[in-house]
Amino acid sequence: MAAKFDPKAKAKKQKIVAAVLGVVLLGVLAWQVPSMLKVMNKKPPASTAPAPAAPVPGTPVPPATGTAPTGVATAVSNGTLADSDPAAQPAGGQLLSFDRFASKDPFAQQLGTRAAPKSSNPASAPKPAPAPPPPPAAAKSPVAAPTSARISVNGAAEQIAVGGSFPQADPLFVLVSVSGTTAKVRLADGTLDSGAATVTLRKGKKLTLQNTVDGARYELRLISTS
């Protein structure tokens, strides 16, 4: 005869098994958690490695043994992390720093443009050729001094040379000298009342002389000279 299945009894049995497993799990956690915390908070042992000797100048400094690798931080007692890769101090004769020069365009002009220096002795500008002198003017022939004059006495004109006497019919006067517009005349015999040796005839003007002995009057006029 087959057994009768009771679902209530099965559910009760599963609850009892779950309660027992929960108690066992709590016990395991209570025993393992303190051990795990002790391992996690365990302090690292103090380093007893000897101090490295001072490096010889000019040789590379070897990395210290027992130190943490680059990029790894070492735990300290106060709960903070300290830099395990401090910058190495350079020894004597070693390079302190190295900077790269800024790159330059090989096709760009590197030097500034300088003004061309002025020459201390600049070439003088060529002087223009002197203008040719003007052709000499034709020399004027000197005007010959007149040597004769045309004189009228009481209306009768005669051409008389310098030194000649006039009027021809009764020579009373002598022509002493002649210029362009004047003529000097003296008496052929006797003297003038003024005491002068000669009288001057001017072209276009009449000069009257009177003989004090016989009272005769003479009108003289210079017409031209040549």
Key features of this structure:
four-stranded antiparallel beta sheet, alpha+beta, 1 helix, 226 residues
Can you put this structure into words, describing what you see?
Helices cover 15% and strands 21% of the residues. Strands 4-3-10-9 form a four-stranded antiparallel beta sheet, with no helix packed on it. The protein is rod-shaped, with a radius of gyration of 78 Å. It has 226 residues and is α+β, with helices and mostly antiparallel strands.
Describe the structure concisely.
The chain is an alpha+beta fold and 226 residues long.
Alpha plus pi helix count: 1
Helix share bin: 10-25%
From the N-terminal CA to the C-terminal CA, the straight-line distance is 202 Å
**Helix and strand element order:** HEEEEEEEEEE
Describe the global form. rod-shaped
Widest β-sheet, arrangement of strands = 4-3-10-9
Q: What is the rounded Rg? A: 78 Å
Strand content bin: 15-25%
Number of strands: 10
Q: Which structural class best describes the helix and strand composition? A: alpha+beta
Low-confidence stretches: 65-77
- Largest sheet: number of strands, sense, barrel closure: 4 strands, antiparallel
